[in-house]
Design brief:
Helices cover 15% and strands 43% of the residues. It is built from six helices and 28 strands.
Length: 412
C-alpha cells in the first residue's frame, strides 16, 4: 500500500523545481538585452581614435549616428573602419586621422601626410627608406604626433656604463641627458655623469654614471689625556715627579660617509659626544740648578720640539773646525750668527739639526750650546758635531764615538 503523504511530497518537490528552472530561463533572456527607459535596446560601442579608446552606451544602430550623438566631429580626411561593429551586438568603430609629419633626410625637410600610428609605420607609408647606416631620431614604435619632425641621419655608437652594466647605443645626435633617457636611466639628487649631462654626444664616446650615496657611522674614539707641568724649585733641573696620573677618556664620533658607486671616498665628522672625560696628568718639573749646571741661565721652557728639560738621550759625536773643509767656506759664521775661528778660546759650541738653537746640552759632563746646523746626517736624534778651535788635525785626533746627552735648557 502506497503512503499518500510521501507521494504528495514528491509531486510538490517536482512542481517547485520546474518553477525555479522557468524563472532562471526568463531572467537569463532579459539579462542578455538591456533596454532604455523608452523601451529601445542599448548597446556598448568602443570608439577608437588613433589608438585612444572610449566606450559609449547608445541606442543608435548606425555608426555615423553613434559618433554624432557621442559628440565626435568627423573630418573629411578621417579614415573610418566599421568592420568591428555589429548593429545588434555593438562592437568597435575605428577612426584614423590624417596627420602631417616632417621628415628631415639628407639635410632636406619634406612634409608627408600619413594615417599610421607609429613612427615606423608613418615612414613606411610615406615611402621613406632608411639605409643600413641610418636611423630615425625617434623610436620606430613611438606614436606619431601631428606636425612632428622625424630626423633620419647616419648613426654613430656610444657606450653607457651604469649600475654595473655597459651598453652600446646607436644615436644620430643628442646630449648625455638624451642618452640616459633613451636607456631609461634616472639620476638621484647627488648622482652625476662623466661627461656632464649637457655634453653633446660624439662617436666613440663613453658615458659613465656615478651613483652617490651617504651613510652615517658612529665609532668610539679615545681621548688622550693632557699633561700639566708645574715648576718646583725644590726639584733639580732635569728631574720630574708625577703628582697625578692621567687617564684617557672616551667619545662617540659620528661620521657621514660618502660613497661613489659603492666605494668610500670621503668621511666627514658631523657629531661628537664625550662619554667619559679624560683626566689630566700633573707633573712637577724641577727648576733648582743642580751642581755642574749653575753657569746655565734657565729660560723657563720645560719642553719644546718634542723634547723636555732633563731628558737623557744616547748619541754619537764627531768634531769639526772653522776651516773650509769642515764648513765649506772660510766665512767663520755659524747658523746662529756667532763667529768661530781656529785658535780662539773654546766656546763649547755644537752643531745639530734636531734641537732648537740656543739649547744647552751636557755631553759626558761638559756643557755645550747648539749654535750651528749641518748636513742631513745631523738630523738624526742624538747626532752632534762638536766644534774644536784647535784646527783640522784635532778633529781627527778627538775622533768620533758614542756619548750620553742630557738636555739642560731648550732654546735661548
Amino acid at each position: 500500500m502506497t503512503n499518500q503523504s510521501i507521494e504528495s511530497g514528491k509531486r510538490f518537490a517536482k512542481t517547485l523545481t520546474a518553477a525555479l528552472i522557468a524563472v532562471f530561463v526568463i531572467v537569463s533572456i532579459f539579462a542578455s538585452v538591456v533596454f532604455a527607459a523608452d523601451g529601445s535596446e542599448t548597446r556598448n560601442v568602443k570608439i577608437i581614435i588613433d589608438a585612444e579608446e572610449t566606450t559609449v552606451t547608445t541606442t543608435e544602430t548606425e555608426p555615423i549616428e553613434i559618433l554624432t550623438t557621442s559628440g565626435i566631429a568627423l573630418q573629411d580626411t578621417d579614415r573610418l573602419d566599421f568592420s568591428g561593429y555589429n548593429e545588434t551586438e555593438g562592437g568597435s568603430i575605428v577612426i584614423n586621422r590624417l596627420k602631417t609629419i616632417n621628415v628631415e633626410h639628407n639635410n632636406v625637410i619634406e612634409s608627408k601626410k600619413v594615417y599610421a600610428l607609429t613612427v615606423g609605420g608613418a615612414l613606411s607609408e610615406a615611402g621613406v627608406n632608411i639605409e643600413k647606416n641610418e636611423m630615425a631620431g625617434a623610436p620606430l614604435d613611438a606614436p606619431v604626433l601631428d606636425g612632428m619632425l622625424i630626423k633620419i641621419k647616419p648613426y654613430f655608437t656610444v657606450k653607457l656604463k651604469a649600475d654595473g652594466k655597459t651598453q652600446s647605443f646607436n644615436v644620430i645626435e643628442g646630449t648625455v641627458a638624451d642618452l640616459l633617457k633613451k636607456a631609461g636611466v634616472t639620476l638621484d639628487r647627488d648622482d652625476f655623469t662623466k661627461p656632464k649631462l649637457n655634453k653633446k654626444l660624439k662617436a666613440g664616446m663613453s658615458v659613465k654614471v656615478y651613483r652617490v650615496s651617504f651613510k652615517n657611522k658612529t665609532v668610539t674614539r679615545k681621548i688622550k689625556f693632557s699633561t700639566k707641568m708645574i715648576e718646583d724649585e725644590d726639584l733639580e733641573i732635569g728631574k720630574t715627579k708625577v703628582v697625578k696620573k692621567g687617564k684617557n677618556g672616551k667619545k662617540k664620533v659620528t661620521y657621514k660617509i660618502k660613497y661613489i658607486n659603492g666605494k668610500k671616498v670621503k668621511s666627514t665628522k658631523i657629531n661628537q659626544v664625550v662619554t667619559k672625560k679624560a683626566k689630566k696628568k700633573v707633573v712637577k718639573v724641577g727648576t733648582k740648578t743642580a751642581e755642574g749646571y749653575k753657569d746655565v741661565e734657565p729660560n723657563g721652557v720645560t719642553s719644546k720640539w718634542g723634547y723636555s728639560v732633563g731628558q737623557k738621550i744616547s748619541g754619537k759625536y764627531t768634531h769639526y773646525c772653522a776651516c773650509a773643509t769642515c764648513n765649506g767656506s772660510n766665512s767663520g759664521t755659524t747658523s746662529s750668527g756667532y763667529r768661530i775661528y781656529n785658535g780662539m778660546e773654546n766656546p763649547y759650541y755644537i752643531a745639530c739639526n734636531w734641537l732648537p738653537t740656543g739649547t744647552v746640552i751636557n755631553v759626558d759632563g761638559v756643557n755645550y750650546c747648539v749654535v750651528d746646523r749641518g748636513g742631513s746626517g745631523l738630523s738624526r736624534v742624538g747626532r752632534i758635531d762638536i766644534f774644536t778651535p784647535e784646527g783640522h788635525a784635532a778633529c781627527y785626533r778627538y775622533g768620533t764615538g758614542p756619548c750620553e746627552i742630557t738636555i739642560v735648557r731648550l732654546g735661548w
